[in-house]
Amino acid sequence: MLEPATPEEFRLAWIEARERGHWPRILGGGANLLIADGTLEGVVITTDRMQRVFRPGMREAGAEEWTNDAAPDEALLVAWAGAGMPGLVRVSRELGWTGLEGLAGVPGHLGGGVAMNAGGRWGELWDVVERVHVLSPSGETRELPRAECTPGYRDGGLGDDVVLGAALRLTPGNKAEVAEAIKAYLAEKSAVQPVTEHSSGCVFKNPDPELSDGRSAGKLVEDCGAKGRRRGGAEVSTKHGNFVVNKGDARAEDVLGLIEEVRGLVADATGIVLETEVQVWGNAAPGDDPRP
Ligand code: EPU
User: Which residues lie across from 234 on neighbouring strands?
Assistant: First the structure.
């Protein structure tokens, strides 16, 4: 596992790995990821050390370059891929900038959030992305303006490009109102989701509402009676059907087995084959292309 501290180090690590025949897996915060039991072959590059956040007018090295010389009063947050989502929401709250409140409670790093268009009922990350800095598989960095991107539901639409950083366009607002909205979303979320337990977040994407009569994935799982179903240390949350929680000693095998079981139950009951939202890293043979 390689741990670059800057986007440039990331680029060099990527190129080095590619030259040696590997297709590196990228590890952000790991919030939406299940890793198979055992030893994982290959190269992982983590964004964990790439946590910098810039604002226009900041006197720190790199700020002018990353904010593209935006005027000091612009509500722009520019961050490297390893910046934590909760930290970015906190910064927006402290500044009274509106736009990220709907992402309150979303774990993980900015890079993964942009790549997968993290979000939920109250908003998605791409609602505020102004531009994204990416690394192409051949090792070139590019800045993509929002207009050139086609994000969708739980998908940043960036293909094989890797996110190195992004600029988020927020709007100056009222500090108390921003704080209040964040508090309300967090409260609503913890009332319906198992936020204090260990999980990978929602397991399945919500299906097309036309096919499911508007029922969410969690509701479909509940309706087929799968809540509370267990396999080893893994359990379909009794609070929210779209979460599999680790009761303490679950192995990836338990979680993956339970996911397939639930997918089958929902398919038998409704004909809807739910699509997995959680990313899974399996065990490829050395040198295999680990791309999903
Ligand atoms: N519901 C049930 N039973 C359940 C679960 C849900 O009846 O077991 C009902 C709820 O009562 C509600 C509806 O289904 O009426 C939707 O539930 P919820 O509000 O929890 O939203 P969701 O569609 O299940 C989405 C995102 C979440 C995000 C929330 C809130 C997906 C797959 N999930 O959940 O994202 O936190 O909205 O914004 O899009 C994630 O991506 O990991 C994730 C958790």
Answer: 231, 246
Asked if residue 124 has its Cβ within 6 Å of ligand 1, the reply is: no
Active site members: 154, 202, 277
Report the C-alpha gap between 152 and 168 in whole angstroms: 17
Q: How far is the CA of 209 from the centre of ligand 1 (A)?
A: 13
CA distance 6 to 51: 9
CB atoms within 10 A of CB 237: 19
What is the pLDDT averaged over residues 238-244?
98
Angstrom distance (rounded) from CA 237 to CA 241: 6
Task: Quote the pTM value.
Answer: 0.94
How many separate helices (H) and strands (E) can be counted in the chain? 8, 17
Average pLDDT of span 85-106: 98
Give the sign of the dihedral formed by CA 205, CA 206, CA 212, CA 218.
Answer: positive
Residue 212 near ligand 1, beta carbon < 6 Å = no
C-alpha of residue 192 to centroid of ligand 1, in Å = 8
Average pLDDT over residues 170-185: 98
DSSP assignment of 11-53: HHHHHHHHHTT---EEESS-TTEEE-SSPPPS-EEE-TT---E
What per-residue string of b and e applies to 145-159 under the rule 16 or more CB within 10 Å gives b? eeeebebeebebebe
Tell whether ligand 1 has an atom less than 6 A from the beta carbon of residue 188.
no
pLDDT at residue number 286? 45
Please give the backbone phi and psi of residue 116, each rounded to the nearest 5 degrees, phi first.
-105, 5
Judge whether 77 and 111 are in contact, CB under 8 Å: no
